Amino acid sequence: MTSEPATRATARYELPTDPGSAEVAAARLWAAGAHGVWERPTGLVAWFDAPTDAVPPGGSWAVEPDHDWQAAWKATIRPVHAGRFAVVPTWLAQDHRPAPDELTLVLDPGRAFGTGHHATTVLCLELLDELAAHRHDGTALEGLEVADIGCGTGVLAIAAARLGARVTAVDIDPDAVEVTGDNAALNGVVLDAAVGSVEALERRVDVVVANLVTDVVADLAEALVTGARRNLIVSGITVERQHVALEPLVAAGLVVETTRARDGWVAVSGHRDDAGRPAGRAVEVAPDPPDPRG
């Protein structure tokens, strides 16, 4: 969804999108030869060496003087807080002062999604933290096996490892797997990272976390639910198309416990129906929390 803007591109393409179309549009921009794609609230910005007709239609081109777009992009990034987690980019880590109970995740986005700023990532981090906090024995995720499907930069995998879990992270993008490994080392955690999707798991795990996109969640619904012995946390689902993902998840036996929405995206957490029967529960998405700034 988001990656670092390039430093040498001089052609800027701005494409208006909504949350439901941003992922597909971003993939098309990368395929058209973009050096970087930046997701913003109103759409996507992509950088190219020169204008091209291969981009999705509906956007506008601008030619800009060559300068350090990476530095300009970094200047917009601030630490993100989600539950007890704070996601801090590497270039801000030296000056970051963590709160007493904070779990700091230091990330270098590199060539993979994402910085932790996207609503879907924040929602998954919150639900993962809540899952750990609600364990009756007070041991966070210690002793549990967690799989991060579509790991990107590894932010969710590293968060689970910080909570004490044994973690496997998979992504179909080899660059993402490499970046996840680098970020894990940066945070002093050990995890297994491999190229693939849910089928790459050697066995069922206690908790599956999957921050994907609506159609991929729908396609993998049965595998995601089956792969989780205890809990499933899934996001990347757009509010307007939530039924496309939630209906097959419930049909596969997911008992939905929590749904949460933010900025047009939905995250769901629940547990597997041990009897293997559809839970049949009506799913209602919680509204965005009120803005504390008024």
- Please provide the ordered H/E string of secondary-structure elements: EHEEEHEEHEHEHEHEEHEHEE
Q: What summary fits the major beta sheet? A: 7 strands, mixed
Query: Could you report the average pLDDT, rounded to the nearest whole number?
Result: 84
DSSP, total strands = 14
* Poorly predicted tracts of residues: 1-7, 276-294
The backbone outline, from C-alpha atoms, is: globular
Sheet/helix structural class = alpha/beta
First-last Cα distance = 29 Å
How much strand content do the residues show?
Answer: 25-35%
Helix content: 25-40%
Q: What is the C-alpha radius of gyration, as a whole number of Å?
A: 19 Å
Strand arrangement within the widest β-sheet reads 10-9-8-11-12-14-13
Q: Determine the number of helices (DSSP H or I, runs of at least 4 residues).
A: 8
Task: Give a description of the structure.
Mean pLDDT is 84; it is low at 1-7 and 276-294. The chain is of the alpha/beta class and 294 residues long. β9, α6 and β10 (192-195) form a beta-alpha-beta unit. The strands form 3 sheets. Strands 10-9-8-11-12-14-13 form a 7-stranded mixed sheet, sandwiched between helices. 28% of the residues lie in helices and 29% in strands. The protein contains 8 helices and 14 strands. It is globular. The chain starts with 10 loop residues before the first strand and ends in a 22-residue tail after the last strand.
